[in-house]
Specification:
With about 250 residues, the protein is an alpha/beta fold. Helix content is about 45%, strand content about 15%. Bound molecules: 2-phosphoglycolic acid. Its EC number is 5.3.1.1.
């Protein structure tokens, strides 16, 4: 009923030639081994994006995305990259609001709402990241924290628009730490997110939105995570840098 998605977030890793090698390895293994019902996305650094998008054309299961974009359409914003530029090289997705962007670049929910609008206007599908810190989880306020991120960045959208969003729940305490959320913790939060979306957009719409888990997902824990009814795939950091590991995760449904 909803898309199964495994998206790789390369972050700031791989020089140009290493990135192209990784992309073509992923495309080859996916073409040989992956079922048709899984969508694989590679979110490379901007520099690699145009060429990675060309590689991805060799597979109807592999798509590409950027890791960030400007909230301005164009103009005097030195060093920034626009939604239109990303779209023009053949990318179809863009990660928005990753916790590393929120933390190191002070991205706010309000700014992210603007980026979401711009991405949709240009025809990019946002992979919208949400998730709480360890401190918030320990205080027991993780659900209201995540719901507030969704409210402030996504709840102005129409029913049609929200269905173009992929949500990635990434507890900050599990990112790059080797400490995965348990499959039950992931399921509980994904269910809370879906219920919250249903409250705003209706159950039928909420049931169509893919919610990915991110945070130390690996080949050996993906199966259990993806077996949860509200976990529709993963946003994969470290393990997306090795083609074999990444595709093994995509084969874990
Ligand atoms: P990780 O990163 O898989 O390396 O924990 C996930 C992410 O930050 O998207």
């Amino acid at each position: 009923m909803r898309k199964k998605i495994v998206a790789g977030n390369w972050k700031m890793n791989k020089n140009f030639s290493e990135g192209l090698t990784l992309a073509s390895e992923v495309v080859n293994i996916v073409n040989d081994e992956l079922n048709d019902d899984v969508t694989v996305i590679m979110c490379s650094p901007f520099i690699h994006l145009a060429q990675v998008a060309k590689n991805a054309q060799e597979s109807d299961k592999v798509f590409v995305g950027a890791q960030n974009m400007s909230e301005h359409a164009s103009g005097a914003y030195t060093g920034d990259i626009s939604a239109e530029m990303i779209k023009s090289v053949g990318a179809e997705y863009v990660i928005l609001g990753h916790s590393e962007r929120r933390e190191y670049h002070n991205e706010t929910n309000e700014q992210l709402a603007k980026r979401v609008d711009l991405a949709l206007e240009i025809g990019l599908n946002p992979i919208f990241c949400c998730g709480e810190s360890l401190e918030i989880r320990e205080s027991g306020k993780e659900v209201s924290y995540v719901c507030n991120q969704l409210t402030e960045s996504l709840f102005h959208l129409t029913e049609d628009e929200i269905q173009k969003i992929v949500i990635a729940y990434e507890p900050i305490w599990a990112i790059g730490t080797g400490k995965t959320a348990s499959s039950q913790q992931a399921q509980d939060m994904h269910k809370a997110i879906r219920d919250f979306l249903a409250g705003q957009f209706g159950q039928e719409v909420a049931d169509k939105i893919s919610i990915l888990y991110g945070g130390s997902a690996k080949p050996d824990n993906a199966k259990e995570l993806f077996a949860q009814p509200d976990v529709d795939g993963g946003l994969i950091g470290g393990a997306s840098l090795k083609a074999r590991d990444f595709v093994e995760i995509a084969k874990s449904f």
